[in-house]
Design goal:
The structure is a homodimer of 202-residue chains. The first copy, chain A, has helices at residues 25-41, 48-54, 59-66, 69-92, 101-116, 124-131, 140-158, 161-179, 186-199. With 202 residues, the first copy, chain A, is mainly alpha-helical. In chain A, helix 1 packs across helix 4 and helix 4 (69-92) packs parallel to helix 7 (140-158). Chain A binds a DNA duplex (30 and 30 nucleotides) through residues 24-27, 47-49, 57-61, 63-65, 68-69.
Chain lengths: 202, 202
DNA sequence: CTGCGAGTATACCGACCGGTGTGGTTACCT
DNA sequence: AGGTAACCACACCGGTCGGTATACTCGCAG
């Protein structure tokens, strides 16, 4: 049952991301600039000077609003998680009738394809995780939460934890194969694999 | 048929990685130091000064041997691909008799678990790809070759391209879920998913 | 004996890193 | 009128970045 996608409880039992703090206008510009730069070039490759300049403001304002580059990185990922979640949910919840697990899960992969739009930069969360090294970074909980949310979503959509796990593995693998692997046929193979995973439901 | 794992043609038709160049003693130390530092802390987070110091030599020698940091990064990945491939193959090829696709494929996941040894730093190739940004980096072909090699391996082991693709997606997803996702149960779910994927073979 | 490849030691380069400090200008709230 | 939060301009900090230059020592092959 798709209990968590009922119109009355659109978020259901899935873990909810912490909300985004209210931002000033310069803060918004900074977060938007950081978002594009961090994603396209990598977190460590982008300096705070460039972010401030791109946003049409100053480093001073950046540090007044966000406190540190690390905090800005964490907020960038939190913001992106919110964007992806709303993008995804409105593509899953629309056909409120005749909603099968296969239809819903494949809609997630359709949404992913649209979201990526041919880009090859991969998953922002996996990429950020790769750059953070061994220590504990404020962005790590955001990354973990995003992955846990996707897993819980697939559990809900399939109604089965084992099938949800299987589909989630395919989902994460698809992102890697499409981007780092450079294999453009990955999405076709993913959809075929998803149908097999769903057919295994007991 | 496991044509490419016959004892007479251990590499078979799978694409072969370019060989590692011969290294001097200081060069070997540099590559080993770079390997550990790059993997554990990230490529961009490690400077050439630290690598030279860790290897007990100088930056001068590093640049005499490798020419640039980018070239050293590419060689680090090529070296790691060779290590992983030999580690993996000796764990797959050993029981030359009674070799089923299920046994072989699950042996890959066993090898992966052993290779990772509880570490949470993820796939070196995916991590490096995440750090390279948009441009063309000498490491990209090495990354692509490694992913293509794993895919071809699964095609061979399963004897079916669709099943191989499915298992490869699960494999890449497992690495992400275990590390960035921080989900320790990912390996158990992966093995279950693999059995389902293999059972779909026509 | 000579030449050469390999390695060591150290100094240097301009650019950039994340982060701070000062001072001044708006605009809104009480 | 006074306070304050937000913002901008700009200068500054110590440290590190990738990469280069100079000069010296060693072992070895011709």
């Amino acid at each position: 049952m798709l209990t968590t996608l009922d119109s009355s409880t659109p978020e259901g039992l899935r873990p909810v991301l912490q909300p985004l703090p209210t931002l000033t206008s310069a803060g918004t510009r900074l977060l938007e600039a950081a978002g594009e730069l961090f994603y396209n070039r990598g977190v460590r490759a982008v300096g705070v000077d460039l972010i401030a300049e791109t946003a049409g403001t100053t480093k001073k304002t950046l540090y007044d609003r966000f406190g540190s580059k690390d905090a800005l990185v964490a907020l960038y990922l939190l913001d992106r998680a919110h964007q992806w979640r709303s993008f995804l949910l409105e593509r899953i919840e629309l056909p409120a009738s005749a909603r099968s697990p296969e239809h819903s899960v494949l809609a997630v992969f359709d949404a992913l394809e649209t979201w990526m739009g041919g880009q090859l930069r991969g998953c922002a969360f996996v990429n950020a995780y790769a750059e953070l090294g061994e220590g504990d970074h404020p962005a790590v909980p955001v990354i973990r939460a995003e992955k846990a949310w996707m897993r819980a979503l697939f559990d809900d959509l399939t109604g089965d934890s084992a099938v949800g796990a299987h589909v989630h593995l395919i989902y994460e693998g698809t992102l890697v194969v499409l981007t780092a692997g450079g294999d453009a046929s990955g999405m076709v193979e993913a959809r075929r694999a998803v149908r097999i995973a769903l057919a295994s439901n007991g």
